[in-house]
């Protein structure tokens, strides 16, 4: 399988047409689309540590959820992190590919995975017009907002979440990553509770007064499970490809007893 064939296979699962207009996912750098793919490193983010691992480990492709090139690069110099990573990948002939908002929106992508992890049934898409990448569904039984927050910690393997609001919860909306702009859409969709990676302090305050409970569960925690999906897609495209997952969080949660 070549780089081009891998990209086309993944693009069939999550086509570019599903990406938000402001997004910049896809192939960020590639020296040769005809290059054979033998080793792929899958990660949520193209951090410097992950890029260095790719270079030293002899990987052909770095496959991530978040794009390496998101904002404009004005100069290729080692003084800034994105150009530095880009130059390192190109020098080592490593292709960088990302599937961002299209993977959020795609059936079986980030938000379907999140909805399944959190026990939702009768799931459908929701969101502001033109960005229906979130998912909304029902819990088997109604629970309190606090009880559901504890369940989220268990299912996402995290020690804590931020909860705003209270009351009985049955209909739940979810969105991996940044979700502050989706609160109004969740309310309009009839959600009792909306969960996202990040919502924002003031929006969390307002939401509770607007009649919806809100949970912030962390950007990484709400999206990292998609790395397993990306790995499975690569394996389905070509079973001979060696795949390694890197799901070590860069941003650590620290308590008085140390990092978690």
State the low-pLDDT regions, or none.
none
Count of structural domains: 2
The level of helicity is: 25-40%
User: Could you please say which CATH topology of the largest domain applies here?
Assistant: Udp-n-acetylmuramoylalanyl-d-glutamate--2,6- Diaminopimelate Ligase, Chain: A, domain 1
Number of DSSP helices?
10
The largest beta-sheet arranges its strands as: 5-6-8-9-10-7
Largest sheet: number of strands, sense, barrel closure: 6 strands, mixed
Question: How many strands in all?
Answer: 13
Please state roughly what percent of the residues sit in beta strands, choosing from under 5%, 5-15%, 15-25%, 25-35%, 35-45% or over 45%: 25-35%
Task: Describe it.
There is one protein chain. The chain has 2 domains: 3-103 and 225-247, Udp-n-acetylmuramoylalanyl-d-glutamate--2,6- Diaminopimelate Ligase, Chain: A, domain 1, CATH 3.40.1390.30; 107-216, NIF3 (NGG1p interacting factor 3)-like (Udp-n-acetylmuramoylalanyl-d-glutamate--2,6- Diaminopimelate Ligase, Chain: A, domain 1, 3-Layer(aba) Sandwich), CATH 3.40.1390.30. It starts with a helix and ends with a strand. It is built from 10 helices and 13 strands. Strands 5-6-8-9-10-7 form a 6-stranded mixed beta sheet. The mean pLDDT is 95. It has 260 residues and is of the alpha/beta class.
């Amino acid at each position: 399988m070549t780089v081009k064939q891998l990209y086309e296979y993944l693009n069939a699962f999550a086509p570019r047409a599903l990406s938000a207009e402001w997004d910049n996912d896809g192939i960020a750098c590639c020296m040769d689309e005809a290059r054979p793919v033998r080793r792929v490193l899958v990660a949520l983010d193209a951090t410097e540590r992950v890029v260095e691992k790719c270079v030293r480990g002899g990987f052909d492709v770095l496959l991530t959820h978040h794009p390496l090139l998101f904002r404009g690069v004005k100069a290729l110099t080692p003084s800034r992190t994105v150009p530095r990573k880009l130059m390192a990948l190109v020098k080592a002939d490593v292709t960088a590919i990302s599937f961002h908002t299209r993977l959020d929106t795609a059936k079986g992508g980030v938000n379907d995975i999140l909805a399944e992890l959190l026990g939702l049934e009768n799931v459908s898409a929701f969101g502001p017009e033109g960005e229906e990448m979130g998912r909304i569904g029902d819990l088997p039984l109604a629970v309190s907002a606090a009880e559901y927050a504890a369940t989220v910690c268990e299912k996402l393997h995290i020690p804590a979440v931020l909860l705003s609001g209270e009351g009985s919860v049955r209909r739940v909306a979810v969105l991996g990553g940044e979700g502050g702009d989706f609160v109004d859409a969740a309310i309009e969709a009839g959600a009792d509770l909306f969960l996202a990676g990040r919502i924002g302090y003031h929006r969390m305050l307002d939401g509770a007064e607007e009649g919806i409970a809100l949970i912030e569960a962390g950007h990484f925690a709400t999206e990292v499970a998609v790395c397993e999906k990306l790995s499975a897609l690569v394996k389905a495209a070509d079973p001979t490809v060696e795949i390694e997952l890197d799901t070590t969080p860069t941003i650590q949660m620290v308590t008085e007893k140390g990092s978690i």
